[in-house]
Automatic annotation (TrEMBL):
This is Sorbitol-6-phosphate 2-dehydrogenase. GO terms for molecular function: sorbitol-6-phosphate 2-dehydrogenase activity. It comes from the Bacteria. CDD domains: SDH_SDR_c_like. Gene3D superfamilies: NAD(P)-binding Rossmann-like Domain. It holds the Pfam family adh_short. It comes from [Enterobacter] lignolyticus. Keywords: Oxidoreductase. Belongs to the short-chain dehydrogenases/reductases (SDR) family.
Length: 259
């Protein structure tokens, strides 16, 4: 397979896992991260495992129009095409609404929503130029379907991602480009979730070591969301088998959210 996947936020955590998984499926991978050294490191690991030229690391700030435009040019120069865009960049700041700063709220919108828009715009241009019936997939959250206590900035941005996904799907349907959002359950072992344990404990009135079990108990299938769960669903919607699906917000929540 000569197809090219661009993974925004691919230098760490879930994004890095997706990069490796896509490389294992035969994609050439553009690993993109605001921390360019991390992107380069993941690309080097992929090249060592799957062969030189399997991946390339790029530093880019997804919230900067100029940076994303430069990224698209760089990816085009190295790979010459784009078949799949994964937007996996994200940030969460938790606080009660009275204590939520405008800076934190705006930062959440910038990283979780504006960056998605900029990347989708630039990379869809390349797909259209080359006549590629590509795929755009946003890594979203169940907080994009149901409100999240003390997470107003994150939830607002993720709800916005659903509307943007549907609008992009309508814009790009005539070109055969499909667009989806993956609505993840709690990635309990992820660095982002773990970093929020003290804040979640405070809002729930629990000890920090009780928070994970609290969230597991909310899930009908009685476990958190794993990185592999995300990759499995992503690979289907990136494949020709999902060519008749677009504009969908797909739950990966273990039954916690069912609409």
């Amino acid at each position: 397979m000569s197809q090219v996947a661009v993974v925004i936020g691919g230098g760490q955590t879930l994004g890095a896992f997706l990069c490796r998984g896509l490389a294992a499926e035969g994609y050439r991978v553009a690993v993109v991260d605001i921390q360019s050294d991390k992107a380069t490191h993941i690309a080097q690991e992929i090249n060592a495992e799957f062969g030189e030229g399997s991946a390339w690391g790029f530093g880019s700030d997804a919230t900067s129009e100029a940076s994303v435009e430069a990224l698209a040019r760089g990816v085009d120069e190295i790979f010459g095409r784009v078949d799949l865009l994964i937007y996996s960049a994200g940030i969460a700041k938790a606080a009660f609404i009275s204590d939520f700063t405008l800076g934190d709220f705006d930062r959440s919108l910038q990283v979780n929503l504006v960056g998605y828009f900029l990347c989708a715009r630039e990379f869809s241009r390349l797909m259209i130029r080359d006549g590629i019936k590509g795929r755009i997939i946003q890594i979203n959250s169940k907080s994009g379907k149901v409100g999240s206590k003390h997470n107003s900035g994150y939830s607002a941005a993720k709800f916005g991602g659903v509307g943007l996904t549907q609008s992009l799907a309508l814009d790009l349907a005539e070109y055969g480009i499909t667009v989806h959002a993956l609505m993840l359950g709690n990635l309990l072992k992820s660095p982002m979730f773990q970093s929020l344990l003290p804040q979640y404990a405070a809002k729930l009135g629990l000890r920090a070591d009780e928070v994970e079990q609290y969230y597991v108990d909310k899930v009908p299938l009685k476990r958190g969301c794993d990185y592999q769960d995300v990759l499995d669903v992503l690979l289907f919607y990136a494949s020709p088998k999902a060519s008749y699906c677009t504009g969908q917000s797909i739950n990966i929540t273990g039954g916690q959210v069912m609409f």
